[in-house]
């Protein structure tokens, strides 16, 4: 066992993923307690930083999804007040949370990602985006997927099947974020590869000072149970979607998906843990990276625990391992 | 810490402990019906609106601050002095006799005569919906409901795995010819609906009232086809204008000619809107055979409704003029309705359409197509409402509509909330207009109430609700699959 730590579990907050975050956080708390750590549960609110200063924990376990928790804001503030924390640093959080930035970086690095375009709400009026809608359609084809640039959930994700549906889809996405991402729709299989930092060194007495090389966990495939859109509801409710792990893929595709996930993890500068979402294009059999998530869900229906489990890393061990990332930055 | 090496690719150890992951473990144990039980994105969003700086028009709340605390204290003391032991004890499943007598009195005030032996006291009106489904619905059975329908009934219907067939309403409520075509279609598919769910007065969420002609015709259709009707009537006594209309229960009783007893209508009533939802007391009046099943279902659910609150109601009815309190509520809510309708004209005039209910708690507003009210809620700063989708079993239709509660909110808050809705809607329509190049979608000036549809005439003109409030029934879209955990 590692040395017992005083760990503040940061959860909740005011994002649209608050409920999911509370569920993730509760499970993290239970796991940390079972591992003998002293747990301080903090539902993020106006007193959060004061609470952290007052309690001065050995580490903060970030279980906040969405705005503030995942976009680098919290991470930057934790560095300012000198509290070590789990997962990626501010810059990596920003690179991943801003799907548009992540996609531009992937494109530059030659990592395949669906064709896309993006713009801020202000550009609609100030630059007259309306004039380019035709070009967007020619570039991406129909249907298109419109997403808020930084929303972690499926809220605001719209599908434009026709040219007529595109403006409303854009306006819908812009309700959740200042920036909208418009992406070519890739029909095919939904895959996710979680990446964990490796264990650095063999010191049995305390956590290692630097992480080992990142390792990709087995691929998870999400198969919607019903004909319906794989929506927000089904994502978090047991029984709405079937998850298969390891995904039934040939060895080469599996290896390629894991390789891409590791490439993205390194490219975006992730630390500790991340989950990379991909599509396997049913027409071209090509793997395309959609996005990376720096604070993956840890609920009973989340993909990271499922993948870890399939790799023989049980939940408590997974949590311990993510905790270690606070000390290996 | 010693970690096992993480293998790339397939891991054979997985197969030796298939139940290891919690997801798989619980999934195997859950009943099939839980698949229909969903938490929704909308609920996530609604949870975020529960902040002090947000004016919420989302609740189905009456204004309980109108009940004098001194009176509450006096009545509770009286319950304690007269019947502490009974109040703290279990009671009969069908309810206390004294409470049933109050129910008979309330129904008589709406012109409906009922036999006390056909009444069952329930834990809120919501329990009636649950018990009726429990009694009548097998998985896949059809319930015919109005479109839009009571958002709180949707999860109950889903939990019993009912297929919900919704009939678009117009300004006179559910069009019975549309109902009949739907019933014919269902019959040709070999599917027989078990019951028709309707809220005839000031419907939740639309605010629409079913006309007398349609009430009569609905009862005829039910009798011709031997179908049960669940008449949900929480607001009937909260009428602010116009003449009260007979309940479906009384019309059916008349048609049945059995001395005031209906044989196809299950009537749902509640004290929630005329007295207090915190009491959790409602009731059902049902044909005896159905009533027996409801009673058995209730025994399994909660044995009995709270004798404490039942005694409170009985004492209240004995000591006070309950009609007078309803009059107080009516004059308060009438004013608030007027405030809301006026504010809508001022801030949304020409850009949205809405109903002007003759009673009840809700106004239903439809924005221009292309504005999704669920998204609008995300953009909304400091105001909350119920997005229209909540009122549709498919979770998709009604996406440009919203339900607004005027009863539980003070006048100034109503004005401010509608102003905020107007502002965010202006932002959305402005964007949409800029994108599509249509100048008409620019935010309208707040000073243009003249462009509003004349709300007072909407219902009188007997135009189709579809004209007043477009409620497009969209085909379920086959959405592309999308995957991403958090």
Overall description:
The complex is a heterodimer of chains A (329) and B (486). In chain A, 35% of the residues lie in helices and 24% in strands. In chain A, 59% of the residues are buried. In chain A, strands 8, 9, 10, 11, 12 and 13 form a six-stranded antiparallel beta sheet that branches. Chain A has a four-stranded antiparallel beta sheet with strand order 4-7-5-6, sandwiched between helices. Chain A has helices at 18-34, 48-55, 73-80, 90-97, 99-108, 121-126, 133-140, 166-174, 232-236, 251-267, 303-310, 315-324; strands at residues 6-12, 38-44, 59-62, 116-120, 144-148, 158-160, 179-184, 188-198, 212-216, 220-224, 241-244, 273-281, 287-293. By secondary structure, chain A is α+β, with helices and mostly antiparallel strands. By secondary structure, chain B is of the alpha/beta class. The longest helix of chain B has 27 residues, at 322-348. Chain B is globular, with a radius of gyration of 24 Å. Chain B has helices at residues 13-16, 22-29, 41-48, 69-87, 97-109, 124-136, 153-159, 176-188, 212-225, 248-256, 288-302, 307-319, 322-348, 373-379, 411-436, 455-458, 465-468; strands at residues 55-56, 119-122, 142-147, 163-168, 193-198, 228-232, 265-270, 282-285, 352-354, 362-367, 383-384, 386-387, 401-405. The interface between A and B is large, with 100 and 58 residues.
**Radius of gyration of chain A, taken over Cα atoms and rounded to an integer in Å:** 20 Å
Quickly count the helices of chain A.
12
Straight-line N-to-C gap of chain B: 27 Å
Low-confidence stretches of chain B: 1-21, 440-464, 470-486
The H/E string of chain B reads HHHEHHEHEHEHEHEHEEHHHEEHEEEHHH
Mean pLDDT of chain B: 85
User: What is the number of strand segments of chain B?
Assistant: 13
- Largest sheet features of chain A: 6 strands, antiparallel
Query: Approximately how much beta-strand content do the residues of chain B carry?
Result: 5-15%
Radius of gyration over C-alpha positions of chain B, nearest whole angstrom: 24 Å
Please tally the β strands of chain A and state the result: 13
Number of helices of chain B: 17
The helix content of chain A, as a percent range, equals 25-40%
DSSP strand content of chain A: 15-25%
Poorly predicted regions of chain A: 228-239
Query: Any idea what the shape of chain B is?
Result: globular
Element-by-element helix/strand order of chain A? EHEHEHHHEHHEEHEEEEHEHEEHH
Q: Identify the overall geometry of chain A.
A: globular
Question: Which oligomeric form is depicted?
Answer: heterodimer
Strand order across the largest sheet of chain B: 2-8-7-6-5-3-4
